[in-house]
Amino acid sequence: MVGRKNIYIYLALAAGMGLVFIAAILGELSLFASLFLLICLVCLPLSKKYSFELFLLLLLIRPAIDSVGTRLIFETINFPINYNGVVAFLMIFLAGLLVVKDKARLKRMPGLRPVTVFLAFSALSIFWSLSFSSSISELIRILSIFSAYFAAFLLVKDKKKLKKLNLAIIASAIVPMSVALYQYVSGTGETIFGEFFIRTKGTFFYPNNLAFFLVFIVGMLLVRFSLSKEKISRGIYGLLIGLCLIVLLSTYTRGAWFGVMIVLGVYGLIKHRKILLVGILILLVAYLLVPTIQERMSDIIRLEPFSSIVWRFRLWGNMLGDFIKRPIHGYGIGAFQVLSGRSQGLNMLPAPEAHNDYLRIMIEIGIVGLISYLAFIFRVLIFQLKTFLKAKDKFLKNVSFVSVIIFGTFILMAFGDNVLRGTAVQWILFGYLGGVVGLARTQAKEK
């Protein structure tokens, strides 16, 4: 018999399926979209019994559909619904279910208060936003990212689950890497406006997102490398890291290049010097042999009007003028490009992105949003650093160490790029962070 607690889920499932069938019959949905929505609806009743498996599945498939997932399923008056949006709803639903189920554990989650303030203020900002529809879309995206953190914290309570989470994240790179390698060999990547070289992007909407994704995958491979005792296993993980570096170089994303150098540098200096030496060798050889890489690096210090550094400073300076007009509450979450387009006088071309996550947050939801976000990320970072320094368990010490390096690197990369805009990357980043702190909290409670 169906319990009272489950009846609403099954009623929602039946109603959803009915709507999908009606829309399909009326020709509003394609066959593929109908099947996709039906599969997602079936996940609703399964999410209670198979929460962890569904969580891993969402993390596994999200990078693979990043680009194709932007295609519309249907469009209402102001709110277009695409495949990525539906998957985001699943992640939010799963996290909500887990929060209701385990409120006691939730109270022990590092960063709970500041992230609650951040999300609440982000939601309120839609009422004074420059673009209501943009704010709704961005709010759902941001909620899905932090839902991954909430879900992982509530689900990961032992080493076995954290190991599965690590493997699922590594496995999520198979499809994007395969596509990226094909693009690299065949020269069928993407050429950005104003550039004259081809950049690989894999299954991602933009090459930078693939690059940041690979920085994280390198970190996950370092976790496996540090936990492996056999030379063969370490050799395999080392080769995979090298392959990731080659593809990462072909994205021509300088922020990610610096990021991976930080990850390999800190890990190599403290743990394994061979990893550091191999990483430096690959990057150095690439720099010496590939003129485009030399050009990309020299552009950083070139103080020409349209160089990347000068262009960024000019944009940041213009936007700071707008920030002064609304310093407390900002212009509404998701409104940055609307405002930057107006400031730059762009009617035809796409409005520029912030290329600085902290500036974006400050412009969109003001000082309140920025302080709450910074309080959250530094609370989580400090918690993991303390876990690494105090942990007696070797497994937890190793994963906390790599986690601190990765998270710290992403915090730094966000000063010069749109890191927070990469939804798939943020899912696996905050999902893994939630898993590590979840295991740490569980072990601390058991003592």
Query: Share of helix among residues?
Result: over 70%
Global geometry: globular
Tell me the Rg in angstroms.
Answer: 22 Å
Low-confidence stretches: none
Widest sheet, order of strands: 1-2
H/E element string?
A: HHHEEHHHHHHHHHHHHHHHH
Can you describe this structure?
- The structure is a single chain.
- The chain has 447 residues and is mainly alpha-helical.
- It has one domain.
- 73% of the residues lie in helices and 2% in strands.
- The protein contains 19 helices and 2 strands.
- Strands 1-2 form a two-stranded antiparallel ribbon.
- Strand 1 and strand 2 form a beta hairpin.
- The radius of gyration is 22 Å and the shape is globular.
How would you summarize this macromolecular structure in one to three sentences?
By secondary structure, this protein is mostly helical.
